[in-house]
Every structure is written in structure tokens, then in C-alpha cells.
Design brief:
Strand order of the largest sheet: 1-2
Keywords: Membrane, Transmembrane, Transmembrane helix
Pfam families: DUF5317 (PF17248)
Distance between the termini: 31 Å
Strand content: 5-15%
Protein name: DUF5317 domain-containing protein
Radius of gyration: 18 Å
Largest sheet: 2 strands, parallel
InterPro entries: DUF5317
Order of helices and strands: HHHHEHHEEEH
Number of strands: 4
Length: about 180
């Protein structure tokens, strides 16, 4: 989803007569924190997929570390309203993850509609890693991955993902269309 939004945002920026050269990354503080955070997530996912670790205390701690690093980045860049909006999206994703044992709640029906599984039963059986199927005990299920997507790539996404993507899109387009005089 984020790749598509990134590409769409750049195209929209060009349509609005913007230019990638207008980006001023020097205004973004500690951008390396984003790369560290997503590297932690990538490592967690790879370890789980390769059955080196299972979701539990260790993955919960690393997930917490990842989100703390992301929120530190957001705090350091709080003067940028679009980065703050992305932070709200991260928060809307973090809440259901941490209230449900370190796993993002996922709607089994949405995974079937998105074409990820042939049946709800298989989706429920395949629930592993950093995801858990929504059930009657799920906290903040409505903030989980409940929306199916079938255009370009198939997956499910959350309200937090939407907010995050809107923030990313507005950030990219605003940077691209910024006047040189504003520098």
C-alpha cells in the first residue's frame, strides 16, 4: 500500500507542477530513526517467517522498540503537520497491536475477499506471526486490518494505514510543490 501511495504521490506532485528537487531533507530531523525502526520490523518478520522465533515476549519488546523509535522521530519533527499525521496513523496501528499481545488483528473475511486465502477457515488456520484473526476477545478490532484491497496487489489494511498514507501523500506533494522562495 505504501509503495503505491509513494508512487501516486510523486505522480500527483508532478501533475501539480512540482519537482522532486524541491525536497529539502535537511528540514527532517533524525530521518535515520525511520530506517532503524523499519529494519527492526523487517528483522522481526524474517525471524518469524523462518520459524527462528515465534510471536511472544521477544517480538513484543522489539515491536515496542520499533514504535518508540518511530514516535521519537515524530516528536523530533512535530513542527511538520504531515509527519504528525503519519504519527497518528502509526498510533492507530500501534494501539490494536499492543492491546492484542503484539499482533495486528485481521478480519478473516477481508483476507478472503482480498484473495489472500481461499476460505475463512484457512485464513484462521494461517493466522501466525505478527497477525491474529479478529475474534470476540479482540480489543479495538475496528482499528485492525479490516479493509480488503484487490487493485494492483492484494492485501488488507487498517484505518491507521489510511491515515498514515494520507500523511505521506500530503508530505510528498507539499514538498514537491513548495516554492523555491520558501527555502
Amino acid at each position: 500500500m505504501f509503495i503505491e501511495v509513494f508512487i501516486f504521490s510523486i505522480i500527483l506532485g508532478f501533475i501539480l507542477k512540482g519537482n522532486i528537487k524541491n525536497f529539502d531533507v535537511s528540514k527532517i530531523k533524525s530521518i535515520y530513526l525511520v530506517f532503524i525502526a523499519f529494519s527492526i520490523e523487517f528483522i522481526i518478520v524474517m525471524l518469524i517467517r523462518n520459524h527462528v522465533v515465534a510471536r511472544g515476549t521477544l517480538t513484543y519488546i522489539f515491536d515496542l522498540l520499533m514504535y518508540l523509535i518511530l514516535f521519537l522521530f515524530i516528536y523530533l519533527n512535530r513542527q511538520n503537520k504531515y509527519i504528525v499525521l503519519m504519527g497518528i496513523g502509526f498510533l492507530l496501528n500501534a494501539l490494536p497491536i499492543f492491546l492484542n499481545g503484539g499482533a495486528m488483528p485481521v478480519d478473516a473475511k477481508a483476507t478472503v475477499i482480498a484473495g489472500l486465502f481461499p476460505s475463512i477457515e484457512e485464513a484462521k488456520i494461517s493466522s501466525e506471526g505478527l497477525y491474529t484473526i479478529i475474534n470476540s476477545n479482540t480489543k479495538l478490532w475496528f482499528l485492525g486490518d479490516i479493509f480488503p484491497k484487490t487493485i494492483l496487489r492484494n492485501y488488507v489494511f487498517s484505518i491507521g494505514d489510511v491515515v498514515l498514507c494520507i500523511g505521506l501523500m500530503l508530505f510528498i506533494v507539499s514538498e514537491m510543490t513548495r516554492n523555491h522562495a520558501e527555502r
